[in-house]
Amino acid sequence: MIMEGPPRPFTDYMPDILKRNMGRWKGHRMVEPGIMEHLSDSEKIYTVRAASTSNARYSTETIRKFADLADRYFGGYMRFTGAFNPEFFARTLEDARRLKKELEEMGFPVGGWGNHLWNITSCAGYFHCALAATDAPSIAKSLGDAAFKYFNQEELPAKLTLAVSGCPSACGGGFLADISIVGIHTEIPIVTENVKSCDLMGTAMICPVGAIQLKQAEKTIEIRENLCIGCGLCVGACSGIIFKTPEKTDGHAILVGGKASSIPPGTQLGRVVVPFLPNDPPRYELTVKAVMRIIETWKREARKGERLIAWIERIGWERFFEKTGLPFYQQSMDDLDLRSLMLLREGGGK
Length: 350
Ligand code: SF4
Ligand code: SF4
What we know:
The chain has helices at residues 16-20, 60-74, 93-106, 136-146, 149-152, 200-206, 233-237, 246-249, 285-301, 308-315, 317-324, 338-345; strands at residues 25-32, 35-40, 44-49, 78-80, 86-90, 121-122, 162-165, 179-184, 190-191, 212-215, 220-223, 241-242, 251-256, 271-278. With 350 residues, it is of the alpha+beta class. It has three domains: 26-106, 2-Layer Sandwich (Alpha-Beta Plaits); 121-186 and 247-345, Sulfite Reductase Hemoprotein, domain 1, CATH 3.30.413; 190-244, Alpha-Beta Plaits. The structure holds iron/sulfur cluster (SF4) (2 copies). One iron/sulfur cluster binds next to helix 7.
């Protein structure tokens, strides 16, 4: 017996044209930045993709305006993409262009598709996560402002994805973006008196590297510094474990070359190219400068259709560092090895 997952039945949530054409879509083409035409064997529709707010936080007023657009152009249907874009449907190209104009007048530029900068994804960061080492939505906003011309005006060699995560759990888009910013803690947390109020066994179990030793008799725990990778999971789990000076030791790394697709060189995880940058809110100028340098160099040097990692693999990592002018550290080119990144704080590195 085939069980259908929620929502049930899923066809109740589909516009008629999608129901009529299930299994009959033949292809699609980009008409202009942010407008895609979809063809079935007998009908066509258009989708119009807009930029989202940072971390997809919308007011109810904005959502009502989106609902009004969806009512007027497509019988009340719209969707949010996996990268948070609000995406609308239209029956004709003229309607799609009118929709685009209305969205842009609302302050939501249309684009982020094809050989452009796609919507920048980010996790919630400090807003509701105790593990954050950096303010992911603010970095995403600063990067989006700096690179905006690539969202729907100037074309890039290929698609460009950027993801910002507050910590290595990488909820902001993982390590599969062309450029990922990942928050990192570089200090070992300390155990305070308040640890007694925590579930000690649960806290010890949460450590991914077995660095927490349970001291049952003393009703406390001990952190083995030589093993700790500063992931922050215990800090999130127990209010009696804290980072002492996060304002000095927290920051973020930049990774490049991730991608999830079967097109050569296949699916790749990003590699560290900037092991540590301090947090410099509110506009994160150092980070923006480094990311823009990578984008501009790739744009200037890559062949048409060459994703960031394809270009790097063609010229070699050594020349990537030469051409971008980014300094090379011993932690560069690693996967995100947190223990190794902690060496930076201890004077290792370059
Ligand atoms: S990436 Fe880290 S900081 Fe961001 S939501 Fe996930 S666990 Fe929290
Ligand atoms: S910060 Fe992470 S690695 Fe270090 S003790 Fe806590 S849970 Fe373990």
